[in-house]
Every structure is written in C-alpha cells, then in structure tokens.
Write a structure and sequence with these properties.
With about 450 residues, the chain is α+β, with helices and mostly antiparallel strands. It folds into four domains: about 25-135, 2-Layer Sandwich (Beta-Lactamase), CATH 3.30.450; about 150-260, Beta-Lactamase (2-Layer Sandwich); about 280-385, 2-Layer Sandwich (Beta-Lactamase); about 390-435. The chain has 16 helices and 15 strands. The strands form three sheets. The chain has a five-stranded antiparallel beta sheet with strand order 2-1-5-4-3, sandwiched between helices. It has a five-stranded antiparallel beta sheet with strand order 7-6-10-9-8. Strand 11 and strand 12 (about 295-300) form a beta hairpin.
Length: about 450
C-alpha cells in the first residue's frame, strides 16, 4: 500500500521542523561556524565562533571575515588568500593560526567552501575548530620526545636498543665511542656476534638474552665485551626488555666501561697491601682500638714487645687488661683514653706491663684513624724506650761516679789525718754503690 501524498501544509510543517533542528544544530555546535556573503561580509556566526574569537554576534555581523579572524600582519596574507579563493575552491586547512579580538593567537583547523544557490555562488561558509589543546599536546609530545632523544644521545653510558633476535635498532654516541662501531655497523646486525666474539662470551650473551626475554625482568652483570678492533674491555651490563606498543618489543641495554674502576681497585689493593705490610713490618708496636676499648688489630711488634702470641686471642679483649696490668697504670691509661676520645692527641712517656707483669718504659702516641666504612678508631703506637731509659740511668751513674772520684781526690789532697780521710772516702763510695757496710784497713810499718 503506497503512502498518501503530503499536503502543502504538511510539507511546510516538516520543513519547518527540519529547519528548526538544523538551526539548533548550528547554534549548539562545538565548532565555530560562520557564513559570509559574496563580499566576504559575515551574515551569520554561531555562539561558538563568537566565543572562540572573543567577539559579540552584533559586533561581527557585517564585518569582513578577515577583520574578525586575521587582524595581525603575520597571518593576514595567508587568510586573505583563503578568503579570495574560497568561492571557487573548497579548503581543508588542518593547522592554521588566526587572531582573537584581544590579539591573542589561536591555533585552528578550517573547513571552508562556497555556498551555492541554483548553481550560483552566493557566499561562503567557514567552520573553525579550536585545536589549541591538540597543538599543545603535540608540542608537549615533541618536547618530551626531544628530551628523551637528547637524554639517550648524550647519556654518558653506552646504550643499545635491539629486537628479539638481537638485531641492532639504535645506539647512542657513547656506544660508538666505547666500542668503536658506527651506527651503520650496528643497525640490523646481530650485536652479539659483534660485541661477544669469544665463544664463551657469545654463549653468555645469548644466554642473557634468553633469560631477559623469558623473565621480562631487569638484570645486571659485570663481564667482558669486544671492541671493533678486537680488544676486550670490562663492562657492567644493565639489560631489560620493554614493550613500545602492542606490536613492538625492544631490549634496552646499558654498558658501563669498568676499565677505570678495575684500575682503581687494583691500585687500592696495591695501596692496601703496602700499608698492611707497613703495619706489620713496623718496628714499633701498633694497636687499633675502638671507643669501648676493645682491641681491633695488633701488629707483630706488639705481640713481641708485650709477650703475647696469636693463641692468646687478644683481638676483641679489653686493651687495659692487655697493656696496663698494674692498677696504678690502668687508672692513668683510662684517663688518657678519655682525654683522647674528647679530642686530644696523646704523645707522652708511660709505663705499661708485659704479659708476665714486668714493666715497660714506652713512648705512647695515639691519634684518630678513619676506617674504610667510616668509623673512627684509636691508632696507638708504643715505642720501646727501655734502651734509652737504661742509657739515661747509666749516664746519671757515670756522672755521679765522676763526682765521687773528684770528691775523693780532693779529700786526699787536703791536709789532715789520712785515716779519717780514708773513712770519709769509703763512706762516699758506699753511698754511691748502695752498700750498707764499709771497712777501712790501715796498715802501718811493723
């Protein structure tokens, strides 16, 4: 059954409804819409257009379109070209710059073309979309990309990007400098064959790749790799895979040159061995102790001077029980220790005791010493001055003996009773040698 023909009134009503809907569509459109006559004067602008460019509808009506959206010299020429050709050629401009009423530049996309009536051009339309946010997002993406490109390129460590088959994708400048390869040498090539020529290293490199892709976890390793000229270099490797997108997976590898590090470690070992030998071979007794007075280390001369052996296990013991067995010396030693940890450097003569309790005359020097881990200990040097003390005592006795001889000589040279003089001389001799009794025998003729 066919449809009944519409009456003129019904057709008019339907057209009015469509027209109302179209009007609402244009008025509420998120795009800025404008219609111009054949002289480029605006005869209609929707609210979004007016809002986008900062004009009122009454202000733009009747104005030339270029006066409204291209009021700056830097965009006028391009806008004028569009306006002059739009009546014959539709335009789709994805990225253009126009000007708001307040002079602020705005990024827009433009769709413009002729308005036709009975095949005749009677005006032009323009649809403007504000792409400022899109433009800003694109600019942000470009800046971020440039930042990461710059970060990648100028990183001090060698960086390699490769795919699942170890085919090189990209390397940075540090990589080319470290290994001597050009970017062209690496791109598309099996990097394991280039960097791990030794069979054992090649097995290791391929095993690491397999582990990386199977676990999807980062790992690090200190190993060796090969330069383009064939020389081996020690490297630290940090390797991990990641997804670029749903279709692309990349392995990111950082190579750190460990040559300087290994040289520094070797130099440190040599230096440590030197000071270890110096510590052990020093003729003075040396001991390290902490704030609690515990013995941390002692050299060979310490054991020999104080009469201890390794079996005595003095390490970890209380230093005062080791070197100051006499209570009087222990009190003095503890006072000096307190002064040392209060910031005073100790440098003086002291008396300490051997393991067997006998006294030692020593010169004590104690200074702070910082260990590798940062803690501070007491570095104590005991210099045996027994020979010096003995020499000093001998010197005193020698001087006293000289004075005695001089005194006795003067007695016998002075006038007086020889027997009495002899008794005085013998008394002085007894006093000098510490005798408790002295006898004088006087022999006379007959």
């Amino acid at each position: 059954m066919g449809r009944l023909p519409l009456s003129d009134d019904s057709l008019r009503t339907d057209l009015e409804i469509v027209g109302d809907h179209l009007h609402l569509l244009v008025e509420s459109s998120p795009e800025g819409m404008v219609i111009c006559d054949d002289c480029n004067r605006i005869i209609f602008a929707n609210p979004q257009f007016c809002s986008m460019f900062g004009w009122g509808r009454d202000e733009v009506t009747g104005k030339d379109i270029d006066e409204v959206v291209a009021g700056a010299e830097e965009v006028a020429a391009e806008a004028s070209l569009v306006s002059s050709t739009v009546f014959s050629t539709p335009h789709m401009i994805p990225d253009a710059v126009r000007v708001r009423k307040d002079g602020k530049m705005i990024n827009v996309s433009i769709l413009a073309g002729p308005v036709l009536a009975d095949g005749r051009t009677v005006g032009a339309y323009g649809i403007y979309r504000d792409i400022s946010f899109k433009k800003k997002a694109e600019d942000d993406i470009r800046r971020e990309k440039a930042f990461f490109e710059n970060l990648f390129e100028k990183a001090p460590e060698a960086i390699l990007l490769c795919g699942r088959e170890a085919r090189g994708i990209k390397v940075n400048r540090a990589f080319t400098e470290l290994f001597g390869y050009t970017r062209e040498d690496i791109e598309g090539e099996d990097v394991n064959l280039l960097l791990a020529r030794d069979p054992e290293l090649l097995r290791e490199a391929r095993g690491l790749d397999a582990l990386s892709w199977s676990t999807w976890k980062p790992f690090s390793l200190d190993t060796w790799r090969t330069r383009k000229d064939g020389t081996r270099i020690p490297v630290g490797i940090l390797q991990f895979p990641f997804k670029v997108d749903d279709e692309n997976e990349v392995e990111y590898t950082i190579y750190r040159d460990r040559t300087s590090e290994l040289r520094a470690r070797a130099a440190l070992r040599r230096e440590k061995a030197f000071f270890e030998n110096l510590f052990e071979a020093c003729p003075d007794a040396i001991i390290l102790s902490n704030r609690e007075g515990q013995v941390l280390r002692a050299n060979r001369a310490f054991y020999e001077l104080f009469g201890y052996s390794k079996e005595d296990r003095i390490i970890g013991s209380d230093i005062f029980g080791i070197v100051a067995r006499d209570p009087r010396n222990e009190k003095e030693a503890r006072e000096l220790e307190e002064r040392f940890w209060s910031g005073e450097e100790i440098d003086r003569e002291v008396v300490r005791q051997r393991k067997d309790g006998s006294d030692l005359h020593l010169h004590l020097t104690q200074v702070p010493f910082r260990l590798e881990e940062g803690s501070v200990v007491g570095y104590i040097i005991y210099r045996d001055i027994e020979h010096r003390k003995k020499a000093e005592r001998e010197t005193v006795r020698h001087l006293a003996f000289e004075r005695l001889i001089s005194s006795i000589s003067s007695l016998f040279l002075s006038p007086g009773d020889i027997a009495e003089q002899a008794r005085e001389a013998v008394s002085e001799i007894a006093a000098h040698i510490g005798a408790t009794h002295a006898f004088v025998y006087v022999f006379t003729d007959g």
